[in-house]
Amino acid sequence: MSFFKKIFSSEKKETLDKGLEKSKTSFFNKLNKAVAGKSKVDDDVLDNLEEILVTSDVGVNTTLKVIERIEARVAKDKYLGTSELNQILREEIAGLLSETNSGEATEFTIPETKKPHVIMVVGVNGVGKTTTIGKLAYQLKKQGLNVVLGAADTFRAAAIDQLQVWADRVDIPIVKQSMGSDPASVAFDALQSGVSQNADVVIIDTAGRLHNKVNLMNELTKVKRVMQKVVDDAPHDVLLVLDGSTGQNAFEQAKQFTAATEVTSLAVTKLDGTAKGGVVIGISDEFQIPVKYIGVGEGIEDLQVFNKYEFVDSFFK
């Protein structure tokens, strides 16, 4: 299979490799124990591999698909050595993700449609939502795009302050009101500001509460409805931010949010500090929603466009 070719710059690839180091080390420590003393991929090896993938937070459904694909390879090739297992995993997981996730983007771009392109960002508190917005704004500005931020997470004063810090750091305008203001009103003002400034992108932060799904749904629906008074088809992207270090909890949050609102893309953060990087493979496969961005470090450049081939290549290298 010819999935793997050099796509990322060496610097970007190095950052990705480093960000996945803990996940990779944990996975291969388990895999090496599982195949110790074995020369061929047999039922025992496959059983152990299944357990390793599940405990690496790849998820049960995705794990079963991967095992089925490897079983088919074993049946077809009659003999597969354990020394080949790593390459087979890379190929079969990349193949699996190719079937369910379109796009091989490597750079931060927005569709060339009418301006402004409106991104509404959702996710529970603590997942790195505001940091992701700041880093995304920085990357889009680097592409020469005019960006406006809207601080519509008015439930916490800290959320507004944190977004202001990022706006100052990246040197882009922010629209905000006081804590407790109507989030839809902030979103409305942010879009009006974006239109008047001829902005290319408006990014709206929203409240990260999930304790009452009905309230969340109502609030996000209202924000959307009010935004459409300014830009009739806004938002163009509803980006859900998930904390990769929470493993299976990230799956659960994805289920909750996709039930509460229409999510169109995902960002998975904090992969550098965890051994649970396999969660990206599972989430990318299980939800019919593209993973658009991944966070692989604390630096401002460490938000990357998710490229499934580069990710799998780094994870299993």
From TrEMBL:
Bilayer topology: Peripheral membrane protein
| Predominant location category | membrane
Question: So what does this one do?
Answer: Involved in targeting and insertion of nascent membrane proteins into the cytoplasmic membrane. Acts as a receptor for the complex formed by the signal recognition particle (SRP) and the ribosome-nascent chain (RNC).
Q: What assembly does the database describe for this protein?
A: Part of the signal recognition particle protein translocation system, which is composed of SRP and FtsY.
* Protein residues bound to GTP: 123-130, 205-209, 269-272
Localisation per UniProt entry: Cell membrane; Cytoplasm
A GO-annotated cellular component: cytoplasm
Q: Which CDD domains match?
A: FtsY
Question: Which InterPro entries does the record cross-reference, listed alphabetically?
Answer: AAA+_ATPase (IPR003593), P-loop_NTPase (IPR027417), Signal_recog_particl_SRP54_hlx (IPR013822), SR_rcpt_FtsY (IPR004390), SRP/SRP_N (IPR036225), SRP54_GTPase_dom (IPR000897), SRP54_N_sf (IPR042101)
Q: What is this protein called?
A: Signal recognition particle receptor FtsY
- GO term, biological process aspect, one: SRP-dependent cotranslational protein targeting to membrane
Q: What is the lineage of its organism?
A: Bacteria, Pseudomonadati, Bacteroidota, Flavobacteriia, Flavobacteriales
Against PANTHER family, the record matches this protein to: SIGNAL RECOGNITION PARTICLE RECEPTOR SUBUNIT ALPHA
Q: Which gene encodes it?
A: ftsY
Keyword Amino-acid biosynthesis recorded: no
Annotated organism of origin? Pontimicrobium aquaticum
